[in-house]
Design goal:
alpha+beta, 3-stranded antiparallel β-sheet, 7 helices
């Protein structure tokens, strides 16, 4: 039997060109592009979801901040009202105390002036009260004004330096030294910001507040002293307090002024019983 003639085989390259119309490289690139497109769409979806979640978180946070801010504002308002009510009660009690003190003094005078012994006792009591500052005082004298340095935008300015750990430049011991020097210079009566200095009256700092007899006072601090203006000025000018305050003026720009006054009116000091002094000393 005769074998069929062997025809020339079709070359593989020609066969692929005739049967495969799409280039394999193009197909691979197309598949890769499709995969990348799918991943891009997924990334976009995830990004949108992330942005939405972040927006929700920020919205909740802002609403919470608004609530907290509202609560803080309400608490601050309540504190202010509480302070005002306390000040009103304190003022009312002070007026009541003054009224009752006047009635007691009037009744005491009426009783003690009925005989010689009573009059002598009354005179002694009045001298003691005058020495203790328990009555108002008026007359000529000098006024010493101490002022905190002005604020400056230049933080390197020497005037912005603070003394120690205190937030204030003028310290309680500065006012104490001034008051003691005025007594030593011959002052008959002294008041700091309208508060009479008497026995058991303190000048101290609590935090950033200056307290005189437990009452807050603020810069400028006015220290009034009744006495001979000429004598007070001459003696005070050579005192350690004057030298101290002059140095503070140069180093820290603290305001310091001494002037003569023809007429000063100082209130009476608060008289404390032994029990009250002990109670306040334990605070």
């Amino acid at each position: 039997m005769r074998k069929p003639p062997i025809r020339n085989p079709t070359p593989s390259l020609l066969k692929s060109l005739m049967s495969e119309h799409l280039d394999p490289g193009y197909a691979a690139a197309s598949a890769t592009k499709s995969s990348k497109s799918t991943r891009t769409r997924m990334d976009v979806v995830l990004a949108i979801v992330g942005v939405v979640l972040i927006g929700i978180v920020f919205g909740v946070a802002l609403s919470r901040v608004d609530v907290l801010r509202s609560d803080a504002s309400g608490q601050a308002h309540d504190l202010v009202e509480t302070v005002r009510e306390a000040e009103s009660r304190s003022d009312a009690m002070e007026r009541t105390r003054s009224t009752l003190a006047g009635e007691v003094e009037s009744a005491r005078s009426n009783v003690l002036q009925s005989d010689n012994d009573g009059a002598s006792i009354l005179s002694s009591l009045m001298n003691i009260e005058s020495a203790a500052g328990a009555e108002t005082s008026s007359g000529a004298g000098i006024a010493v004004v101490v002022t905190e340095p002005p604020a400056s935008a230049n933080l390197s300015d020497v005037s912005q330096k603070k003394r120690g750990n205190s937030a204030a430049t003028v310290l309680d011991r500065d006012l104490q030294v001034v008051v003691n020097s005025l007594w030593a210079s011959g002052a008959e009566a002294i008041a700091v910001d309208g508060i009479r200095i008497g026995p058991n009256v303190t000048i101290r700092q609590a935090g950033g507040a200056m307290l005189v007899d437990n009452h807050p006072v603020f810069s400028p601090y006015a220290i009034d002293a009744i006495g001979s203006p000429e004598q007070l000025q001459v003696r005070f000018a050579v005192s350690d307090a004057h030298l101290r305050m002059s140095a503070l003026t140069q180093l820290y720009d603290v305001g310091f002024e001494v002037r003569s006054e023809d007429s000063l009116e100082l209130p009476a000091a608060v008289i404390r019983t032994a029990a009250r002094v002990q109670q306040e000393g334990g605070r």
